[in-house]
Amino acid sequence: MMTEKYTDISAVLADRIATGEYDEKLPIASEIASEFEVNIKTAQKAVRVLGHRGLVVTRRGRGSYVVANGPASTSQTHAYLLPLAADADSIRNPWRATIMHVVDAFWEAAARKNVQLTMLPSQPARGQLPADAVVVSLPWQPPETIADLVASGYQLLALNFMRDAYPQTCNLPFVAIANHARLEVRDAVAHLVVRGRSRLAFIEPDGRSQQLMPMLIDELVERDLPVLDRAMIRGTGETAVRELLARKLDIDALVVRNYSDALTAVRLLEEQGSRVPQDVAVLTLQGEASDVRGATHQITYFAANFEAMARVVIDLLTTGNFKPMTHLVPKTLVVGTTT
Fold it and tell me: Cys bridge to 110: 115, 136, 186, 235, which one at CB 3.0-4.6 A?
């Protein structure tokens, strides 16, 4: 199986670190690119892989330092990052770009505050890490993993996870950094109202831990907007969108929970002759998947602000404030336009 070029380069650089050839600082990206005959972006990706492995820390404008001997060794704060899966670098992983984006946000925030981070290859077992270890779990961890980490005695900061979202975690002592769902719903309705939309439909999957439909209805009532009961659909995918459209309701906006449903909605609306967003605006409350940006100009979406989340986590690490609570971080609204 062929590997990407940057992976091969990172392996060579890691060997040089292990043998002591690089004992303080890596060459700059342009020098790496010249040696391996690749472009600078490929060289930078290779260095980021070393950062994800905890071998180097990159400081903007100063270069990348070997953790064992460079400036990172003077750090007084250390934490372990737990990714979603061991194959986060796999080109088959549809969330790979987002996962790497989250990790990069952490390295950047940590470098500013002199915090040392180590990427874990998999979920640590009890006793595998120091007794006072701090573990930062990156997004999309299942609740079972959160519960296991707390039971192992580690100090846990869980990114993009609500403490009270699941029965097995609601009473556990850990710090959660999550999206501000109610603010997200409020901003979604406000965005649509400003653009003259008043007849909203909403599709929400069954069984979600955090139901947003009641929040949306409350927001409509507060703004004296009509609540179209038949426009509130429980379900997901093409079946749910077709069910809504079959009701032939007079709507001018459709809000959905995930991006795939938004894409489906655009396709089916256009098939029946509606223009998006001129006739019906489509807005999704979840748009952080790797294929969102640039996929279509017609959909308005909310993207998780992982840079802000990373800054919150690093600030908590530097202050040692691990009081069990949930810190809410607003998402970023990305407005769609016609193509």
Answer: 115
